[in-house]
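[09:14] KT: can someone run the structure on this one? pasting the chain below
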Amino acid sequence: MQQKPTLTLDEVNHILDAAQREAESNGWPVAISVVDDGGHPLALRRLDDCAPMGSYIATEKARSAALGRKETQAFEDMINGGRSAFLSVPELKGTMTGGVPIVVDGQIAGAVGVSGVKPDQDAQTAKAGVAAIDS
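[09:31] RB: done, structure tokens below
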């Protein structure tokens, strides 16, 4: 039988806190979502002044990163490179930069999605959250 890593509530809170610190230190009003390896929501935090739509987009980015097993920037690059058919893939609605998988011992334990600012800023914030459980 195989074993897989799962995120604890404590780890999810560390991820949210680290991502929030990154966003606030840069003045970025974002939504931060954490999902498990199947893309199921574990937590969502929407910072002050973030548009309500950011919550939905952040969750879809996180879900897509978990299910696709890679950063959502790869999907966005694929689509922008001409593979528009990828837009029709079921369950991968968050194909914009800002979703980052959480890899533990070579396995996906979940993902973080961030939405609200520029794509590279969303990704930077998500990566700060992921890094919180690496340390």
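[09:33] KT: thanks! The two ends are 28 Å apart (CA to CA).
[09:34] RB: yep, looked fine to me
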